[in-house]
Design brief:
The structure is a homodimer. By secondary structure, chain A is an alpha/beta fold. Chain A has 3 domains: about 55 residues, 434 Repressor (Amino-terminal Domain) (Orthogonal Bundle), CATH 1.10.260.40; about 130 residues, 3-Layer(aba) Sandwich (Rossmann fold), CATH 3.40.50; about 130 residues, Rossmann fold (3-Layer(aba) Sandwich). The first copy, chain A, is built from 13 helices and 12 strands. Chain B binds a DNA duplex through helix 2 and helix 4. Chains A, B: This is Substrate-binding domain-containing protein.
DNA sequence: CTGAAAGCGCTAACAC
DNA sequence: GTGTTAGCGCTTTCAG
């Protein structure tokens, strides 16, 4: 491997001079600078960033951990994070925890041993607390994305789960629905709890009784959920509309309904949190509360780099990004 | 930062002994091993992989460069790559070139300076040759994904662009269409050229004349393509069906058609390469040649690690993974 | 079984 | 302007 010493020897200077040329630091005569640069070209020299990191105690790598790489919400978020990282001179070490605590733990170990400069972390759920504490014990700069974790203080970029849920449910109410089911993510996840709260609030504000039988806790990735669904459908007084707490749950519900011969929105209205990317472009069908996914990533990355570079106060900040209600055709007026 | 020396001192051994405990190498008495392990726990020690990489000349990081993180084909591929990397003990440094040569070059520089162990590379197009040569000059293990690049010899995992295109077009022919447009990716990209060849082959085999006016070269990411589309529609003898060379082009075409008040498949049949992920789950509409995206990633990663660990012959291998024709409802019988 | 010395490639601090 | 020295945290080699 070519090192600065190889360059130094061939250019008749010391390694230090080469280092200075590479980093544009210190004063160097134009003559030697040119000579060194030329030798570097000739030998196709590329600096070894491991060696650099070792001495500088800085990797210029930021780790991004998301929970589902196939979900457009997270890929758009990743793009935002990546664009911003790149613009500010950082590389992205990317990980996908698959909503799985064991995988998440593996990534945390890796993050620590790689000595990345900071972590953008979308937690799997409340059980991520241990992993986050581990990071904090090592003073790893940290920004939480999309979900909060009880007991963890850190900069956090959240969506307006409660508010968004309230508006989705009020939309259904305005269409005349009174029996509205909630198919939710795991109770272990802050967004699921908040969406539940928003759901209840909307009902209460509109004097619609809350019925626990209409509320299901599932898992944000569970596309298929036949049993849960037929449970709902076989209620004495079944729902006429479904609020799915995220895009995958909505798709699962719609597939399930179709399997039972039911059509959306004719036989059942469906709305959900998170837009669908391509799917909505092709077929603007689902009524959703769309979150500014790109901004989650770009703002989170911005905050993280602020912290890494010491531009943040000590107090952790939290922001709640608003979602946008996009009314399409998956929810219709209740037939009387 | 806690180092092996801190551990060593506290455990009354030498750094070397600590290193041996960490790596399970050499012979160590159970007593000292236990003692060292306990101290490591107490101090929350995590090895510094930069220091390790520096001496071992191995990072256990593999770089994956894709061209579009919002395309389900690539995210599924990424998942395959990631799962396999993780299983085999490698980390993934992830990059997104956005079908952009300048971004691609930046990533190549980064890859080189990070001294990753190898690169899984989905090239932007023929212009990637310079970047690939740069990698090869540095003996960087390399596997090409999805696209070939003239002049570059390397292990390559490809889809059956020609064959898949032929089958899609023959499907349209079997429905009675004779005027079939091709909306293609850039001529600079091997898959686009191959899909063009397959298109021509299908026509020839079925004695349908080839008309250059029906063939458009665009860009795989160009969702909107109004001018190109109206050009086609205003032909003296306009097409009755469109073969879009990938999923995004198909969606762009369908949106464009709708903007003109045309319905798919009633007024125009549309088929394309690559499935749509969520979109197809929600609404199985587009007739496509679906590629085994996950396998692109997992097989490519497997091959790459084989090479990194010296388990490959010198000869570069190429595999062509078959696609699957999935007939849905976006293409219909030609009305006579 | 355990330790001391040297070096991976680079840069900060200090000479000259 | 440029060079020397030392050390970042770790492992290899060779002694004991």
């Amino acid at each position: 491997m070519i090192t600065i010493y190889d360059i130094a020897k061939k250019a008749n200077v010391s390694a230090m001079t080469v280092s200075r040329v590479i980093n544009n630091s210190g004063k160097i005569s134009d003559a030697t600078r040119q000579r060194v640069k030329q030798v570097m070209e000739e030998l196709h020299y590329v600096p070894n960033s491991n060696a650099r990191s070792l001495v500088l105690q800085k990797t210029h790598i930021i780790s991004l951990l998301i929970t589902d790489i196939t979900n457009p919400f997270y890929t758009t978020l990743a793009r935002g994070a990546e664009d911003t990282a790149k613009r500010l001179g950082y590389k992205l070490l990317f990980g996908n925890s698959d909503e799985n605590y064991a995988k998440e733990k593996d990534y945390v170990d890796m993050i620590l041993s790689t000595r990345v400069d900071g972590v953008l972390f979308a937690p799997t759920g409340d059980g991520s607390a241990a992993h986050l504490q581990q990071l904090q014990k090592h003073n790893m700069p940290l920004v939480l994305l999309d979900r909060e974790v009880p007991g963890i203080q850190a900069d956090t970029v959240l969506g307006d789960s409660k508010e968004g849920a309230r508006r989705l449910v009020e939309h259904l109410l305005s269409l005349g629905h009174r029996r509205i089911a909630l198919i939710n993510g795991s109770e272990d996840v802050s967004t699921a709890r908040q969406r539940h709260v928003g759901y209840k609030e909307a009902l209460k504000l509109n004097d619609v009784p809350y019925d626990e039988a209409l509320v299901l806790y599932a898992n944000y990735r569970e596309i298929q959920n036949e049993t849960a669904l037929s449970q709902l459908l076989h209620l004495p007084d079944p729902p006429t509309a479904i609020f799915a707490a995220n895009n995958f749950l909505a798709i699962g519900a719609i597939q399930g309904l179709r399997a039972q011969g039911l059509q959306v929105p004719d036989d059942m209205s469906v709305v959900c949190f998170d837009d669908l990317g391509l799917a909505s472009a092709l077929n603007p069908f689902l009524t959703v509360a769309a979150q500014p996914a790109y901004q989650f990533g770009s703002l989170g990355m911005q905050w993280l780099i602020d912290r890494i570079e010491g531009r943040s106060q000590d107090e952790p900040r939290t922001i709640i990004l608003p979602s946008e209600l996009i009314v399409r055709s998956s929810a219709a007026k209740l037939k009387s």
